[in-house]
């Protein structure tokens, strides 16, 4: 079973967008920059653009001495600037947020159902507990601090952890954070913006089912250097003075994936005897296969065949001698 949840740590907000004409985003210079109107084909739509080109080349209001194509679309276009700057977190307390994970599993073969909120836990305990892997009691607490999940997933420095909460692990490609980008390209293993929470049930039902308890593990799922980070866009639409408008939000954050696995077993005499019989049969078959390989395939098969014949002949002679000896004893008596 798999599930997921997303936690926003920072946002880029573009307010009061409406469908009209405006300049293309200056950050898309390689397809938006122009020198004259002939560089802006009317009706052209670029995959990374913000709208349909109108055929006009206009001056950029965001960068001096830059001319860009005019577009028709949701205007003004998005500016990828964090509200408090590139080195400040908008939602500073997100790492202290807690999440309660409820999980139920069933072992239908044994008619047993278990859940990660154990019967021994009281309401008062759940109000105050937090998951701690080094505690015999709190390692089963289903309440997790987001910051602890990141910490347990992989050891990171405080500086690297700060970048996670700023942009969900993504370095923005701007000159003001070029040092940050260089650092995280070469230290990619420290960046976490996609984290797995693994819940595993390993249960032996030869004992009381109360001993069937979950085990929590955390893993970093980010292992690439291209397209790092996790973000998505969503919009709030409204009407103002009869004009359809929207506020566009680009949300940075951390995606937590929850994976549940389990295995339960119990001793069964029927399965035991069947497995034992199968094992003994395989041992007998192994002897036959070895004889076939040694006597027919190997390079010294003639020598082995002769040794096998001599061995069989010796066993036959001993058997005859033993039978004759028993007959003589019987006659004598």
Automatic annotation (TrEMBL):
Gene Ontology, cellular component aspect: endomembrane system; plasma membrane; postsynapse
TM segment ranges: 276-298
Keywords: Ion channel, Ion transport, Ligand-gated ion channel, Membrane, Transmembrane, Transmembrane helix, Transport
Gene Ontology MF terms: extracellularly ATP-gated monoatomic cation channel activity; purinergic nucleotide receptor activity
Chief location: membrane
Pfam families documented for this protein: P2X_receptor
Entries under InterPro entries matching the protein: P2X_extracellular_dom_sf (IPR027309), P2X_purnocptor (IPR001429), P2X_receptor (IPR059116)
Subcellular location: Endomembrane system
One Gene Ontology biological process: calcium ion transmembrane transport
PANTHER family assigned to the protein according to its UniProt record, in alphabetical order: P2X PURINOCEPTOR (PTHR10125), P2X RECEPTOR E (PTHR10125:SF31)
Record family assignment: Belongs to the P2X receptor family.
Protein name per Swiss-Prot or TrEMBL: ATP receptor
The species this protein was found in: Macrostomum lignano
Record lineage: Eukaryota, Metazoa, Spiralia, Lophotrochozoa, Platyhelminthes
